[in-house]
Design goal:
about 190 residues; alpha+beta; BirA Bifunctional Protein, domain 2; five-stranded antiparallel beta sheet; 5 strands; globular
Length: about 190
């Protein structure tokens, strides 16, 4: 599939997500465990966290990593929020080829985890009456588990990640349309 596969939106602008409870609120929103009605969650997961232990454990794990950050002033953002929204064409191709959306989102999260060394929680939200397209939310801990330093993001990095995410979409559509199984691909074991 050539062309625009989707758009990456960086939601953690100046002044957003600076409250200490921001990670919990965003993670609960992403995983749809915030008590609000919503039937659009297709999958959720995380990297750098023990997702099988549940959402409460994931939130605690984000907090533990943030406690390693030694600050000289304000903490700033406690979590970054990015959304990758599939283009109508990519969404159609993904759904008609039965792309494993959880696998695709996990590959995108792996990009953040391996490049920024930060914990990531993702949630795949399918369209409902309020959303036009399938999209994937990413909640990214702003403190690196490796260095204890804050994550920095700029427009160039966001653009480059959008391009890498587009390649993941193309690869997953190609894999599904050719009948390749993720279980038979030794590169993803």
């Amino acid at each position: 599939m050539k062309g625009q596969t989707g758009k990456l939106i960086y939601k953690a602008g100046r002044g957003n997500y600076t409250n200490p409870d921001a990670p919990e609120k965003l993670i609960r929103y992403i995983t749809r465990t915030n008590g609000k009605a919503g039937n659009d969650l297709a999958a959720w997961g995380g990297l750098g966290v023990t997702e099988f232990a549940g959402v409460d454990a994931v939130i605690r794990q984000f907090s533990i990593v943030q406690e390693t950050y030694e600050r000289n002033g304000e903490f700033g953002r406690h979590i970054d929020h990015e959304i990758f929204s599939l283009s109508p064409e990519a969404e159609h191709a993904a759904l008609s080829n039965h792309v494993d959306l959880d696998r695709m989102a996990r590959e995108m999260a792996r990009d953040i985890y391996e490049n920024d060394h930060c914990q990531v929680v993702y949630g795949v939200h399918r369209p409902d009456r309020n959303d036009a397209h399938t999209h994937i939310h990413f909640g990214i801990n702003t403190v690196s588990y490796r260095t204890g330093r804050k994550r920095r993001e700029n427009k160039r990095q966001t653009r480059e990640r959008e391009e890498r995410f587009g390649k993941v979409v193309e690869q997953e559509i190609e894999r599904s349309s050719s009948g390749q199984s993720a279980f038979l691909d030794p590169g993803h074991l």
